[in-house]
TrEMBL record:
PANTHER family: CHITIN SYNTHASE. It is an enzyme of class 2 (transferase). This is chitin synthase. Its main location: membrane. It catalyses: [(1->4)-N-acetyl-beta-D-glucosaminyl](n) + UDP-N-acetyl-alpha-D-glucosamine = [(1->4)-N-acetyl-beta-D-glucosaminyl](n+1) + UDP + H(+). GO terms for molecular function: chitin synthase activity. Keywords: Cell membrane, Coiled coil, Glycoprotein, Glycosyltransferase, Membrane, Transferase, Transmembrane, Transmembrane helix. It is found in: Cell membrane. It holds the Pfam family Chitin_synth_2. Belongs to the chitin synthase family. Class IV subfamily. GO terms for cellular component: plasma membrane. Its EC number is 2.4.1.16. The chain crosses the membrane at residues 6-26, 38-62, 68-87, 112-133, 153-173, 185-208, 263-285, 690-720, 726-743, 755-776, 782-803, 810-834, 983-1002, 1023-1043.
Amino acid sequence: MPFFDIVTNAMILNSVCILSSIFQVVAQCLARQTSRFIVPPIISIVFILSGYMVFIISYLLSREDREMKIMIGLAIVGTIFVSLNWWENYSTLFRNPFLNSISEDIARSRNLVGILSSVVRILVTAAVVGAYVPLSGRDWSSVTSVPDNVRRVIWILVGIQIVSSALCHWFVVVACKMHAIRRSFLLPVYLASLGVVAAFIAPVIIFYQNLSKTNGANYTMTEYCYDITNGMGLNHNASLPERLVSDITHTLCPEDINDRTEIGFLVGSSLCWWLGWVLCTVYIWGLQLQRIERTQDLFVRRMYEGAFLEQSILLNTHFKIRMKKKVHRPDDPVTVFLCATMWHESHDEMMKMIISMFRLDKYRPKNNPNNDVSFESHIYFDDAFKDLKGSKERHINQYAEDLVEVVQQVYRIFSDDCSGIFREHPFQTSQRIIRTPYGGRLEYTLPHGNQLMVHFKDKLLIRNKKRWSQIMYLYYILGWRLNRKYFKKFVEGDDESELMEKIEKEKANTYLLALDGDTDFQPSAVMLLVDRLKRYPDVGAACGRIHPTGAGPMVWYQKFEYAVGHWLQKTAEHVFGCVLCSPGCFSLFRGAALMDDNVMKRYTTKATEAAHYIQYDQGEDRWLCTLLLQQGWRVEYNAASDAYTNAPQDFKEFYNQRRRWGPSTMANTIDLLGSGSLTSKRNRSISQPFILYQIISMAAAILGPATICIMIAGCLTLILKIHPNLALFLAVVPPVIYLILCFKLKSDTQITIAALLSVLYALLMIATALSIIGTMVKEQTIWTPSGLFIIAMVLMNLITAGLHPKEFHLVIYGLLYFICIPSGYLLLTIYSMVNMNNVSWGTRETGGPAAPKPPTQTITQRILQAKCCKCPCWDCGKLADQNGQVTETVIMDEKSQDYPDLTSQEHHRNVEFHLFQKIEQNWVTHLQNKFHDFHLNEECLATEEEDFWRELQQVYLEPLAEYKEKEKIIANELKELRNKVTFVYFICNAMWLVATFTLQLIGSSVTIKIPKYDLNLNPTGQFLYIDPIGLMFLIGFTSLLLIQFIGMFYHRIYTLIHFVAFLSMKSSTSTIPSDDDMQIPDTLETELNNCMYLDKSLTIQNPAIIQRHKSETLV
């Protein structure tokens, strides 16, 4: 290359596509695709060969000596050899078994091959340099004796080349994942070579124009080249840019130039090579990519060639034979089963969940043209039946009736998409009601064709609680629904190997979306999780960003707690290893992962030991993820997938919830760490450093109470100006007393004491923060441990929140979170450990009647249930709630010619209140009579499915028998486990406190002395004394936060890439409604309550346009 000009050196690199063009022609011919798609590579070959011919002629005209001929030959042969670099892109197209086996072997050991090939390249390069120096008659001193300034420039250029090449390759990958392949990948890369040449030639022209002004208007380019070639026209004190321009000009101006023929040859060869390269890679323009396409599916090899970056990136892009007719080959269709578990949810909570399911039905109708994802919804309702006096059978309770009512209301909302607010005909869609071995089932066909099944569980027939509901839908969907059809085909004689291949593919493309009964989400949130599982086959589960909803200080605290947990902890787990817990309120699971060995089968294990009750039943979501991780599956987190769920709004409910979460989290983490070596071998996402990170995090969590006590001691020292040891003693006394009281008092009393202490600690934290700020202002320095810690925490949280713009407002709740640290990490830990033996659920435990609906909601319900096409009357009958109480029903007099005023009770009408109670003999009749306009048709369950449910009940889901003696044994074992865990906790924290107390007692002889500095970083002559243990803990805590911050930053970048890719594909698909079209306005009830008169049978539909009709009068 030193023998040629700089333009030739830059453009001859485009000729490395010569063999790729030939391979494309051969591949198209072998595939018998002699269409127009074979023309570009043929023309590319012609252009490249023409460029070679012009290149040879141009340099042989100037020099015909032997050395020039050798250099020309080496340049051409070298580019041909380099073009062999991308043979693997076309090996599978030739259908050669030898080439295919080599490609498969290389793909399996890609990283090792890359390392070995890089080592070989370095050795070959060194050998060439070592042979060239003596063979060319040069001395080694010409190589080694490089001036320092030149060596510095060389290293700077090498660094720039490495960094810029890596960034360019990364941005190319990002552009492809974001579906900006044409405007952000192809066009910039195509123009890169031309841009480089222009960047070199432009300064030469500018320099020539400046010299022509000095030497006169007759100063020609030939004279300019002559001057530069002979060392004239450049001052001795010239700057570096001027010397660089001189060097470029020297390569562009041969000594014997006498006309413009050479320039023509130079431009001609350069354009031929460039056009040949463009035509060779033009197939990328029509490349069809999936959203967030995997890098290994984008490029043949992960590595790139830094010397000719743009050429290597384009030629490394996967080549696919293009057909005469466009054959659309979509991905295998995905089926998503929404599986929600319910128990004692309120009317509003049910409404959120049902509306979210109906949104998905509208977003992806049953017969949608995309045919990429289909949805089916299931609701499993625990303890849905009750005994009712006078009835032969058990009836569904008020909570279950509320659910049916909510489904009916939401069904009416989504049942029609016309532009009117009201329609004259009640919907006539027939739904099915079925008796089942586990209780009963309602089957709805939603307005857009998808299915919704509501499974009512009778705890006298089938095992109760959430984990067993999950086992129900796992075996029903993955066992019965998925396997049954293939088993029938196998019985009919179909090929077993073909059936196994199909079932494995369907298992991989069957997803289960686990939901809680109060989860609210948009269709886009589900699709973002689907993307993760579709693109990455080793992902067994993915969760989204959970937002707690509600009002009050407890919810505010949880908003920031959830935010920090997702911003830092979950992102760090995702980036450096795997997410340890995919919450059951909104997580997508792969069917193949759940059906893997030791996952679904082991998940059915009945708790027989005390530790099982903690790990299995108190944290079933975390235990399921632990099983997936141990089996080798990856669990991921997508921050752009938002879901909303109700959070505990009072102190007692919050403490009871965390009493359940805390021990189960510790039990599952210890289980995972205990099998860390085996898990890291099975799961390539979990490495030994990640295991070490989790061990450090666990140690920090265990030592949390002692650390809080030390922090409180520091607060007392700062505020009261007392000795550190006395402050430490005073800080330890209240938690110890609370610990003793927790063993003696009832749970409610413990929570009351914790609430009082939390208020006192919050006041202490406020005083401490103000004291630290006052001390920094007084001493005019921030270089103190407490000052630096507070400033660092504030800055980190502000920066983290700034990287989450839509959630930046949550930093306001950070102040509440800060003052509640002692309550959350000291008192709550003590309460959780001492009450570990309490294995009750903790939330929604009340089994009483559902809360009565407000009057406005009752009126709304009656409007929605009105059926007045025959007579202007309302007669819904008298219903009994689950306590047997009578519900009044308003019946209008048939003779009344006026319409009822729903907002006034002072009107004079003939209204009778009939107080009677009608008790149906079974729950089916009861629902059919209560929701008579919903057409619940009773049908029978298929015999095969009934046999399946009975067998499943016998094997896994029989109701647990109550044995008083066994329950006493388990209760004693739970207390023993509680005592052991509490003792270990106490000893670990006591050792930490004693070590700190001892070091403070010894004094400055064992402390680390750190000088103080003022704001100008000038020493103040004073010193700070920190004990080694405290410094070690501070360094460890800071390291954890730094690791989490780095992981968060990395995760934010890829979340942005995924979200932009989703929006780009979403905007290009006009048939799919956006999330904005899925919104249900809160003004629905307001409009209903404001409706004064009704003239015929009217049902609400399409509430999205209600606000446009506010000014209309309804007649």
